[in-house]
Amino acid sequence: MTEAELLENAGIYWSNFVTSFGIGITIISGYLIVAYSVGASLTRSQVILVNVMFFGNMAFIVQGLNGFGAAAADLEGAAWAMTTQRTFEPTPWGRWGVMVFVVLCVFGAFKFMIDVRHPKAK
Question: What is this structure's pTM?
Fold first, then answer.
């Protein structure tokens, strides 16, 4: 592959990465809306079902983020190795920050559901 083809494919993978991030944030937002609006009135089995579905979807999203980000970083690295014009090496660390952010949001959403279901006495 030429450098241009490598960078084009890397761009496609980064687009998939950003799309997966947007879908993940949308799922987290939906979970928070459900938790806030009806979380306190759900039965235990309903909460378990919602949490399993939420966690399963988010695990899939985080895995997609990892795969798309790793593929894009590998392609960018290969393009950098054959370039004569780019003067700086690509740094793939941004994808890790996004994945950590999404995982923290997932656990924050679980904590929010727990707080809605079990409010502290005043």
Answer: 0.87
Amino acid (one-letter) located at 10: A
C-alpha closest to that of 81 among 20, 19, 23, 1: 1
CATH topology of domain 3-117: Topoisomerase I; Chain A, domain 4 (1.10.132)
b/e per residue 96-114 (b: at least 16 CB within 10 A): eebbeebeebbeebeeebe
In one letter, which amino acid is 80?
A: W
Q: Which of 56, 71, 61, 63 is nearest to 23 (CA)?
A: 61
Q: What is the mean pLDDT of the chain?
A: 91
Are 65 and 21 in contact by the 8 Å Cβ rule? The answer is yes
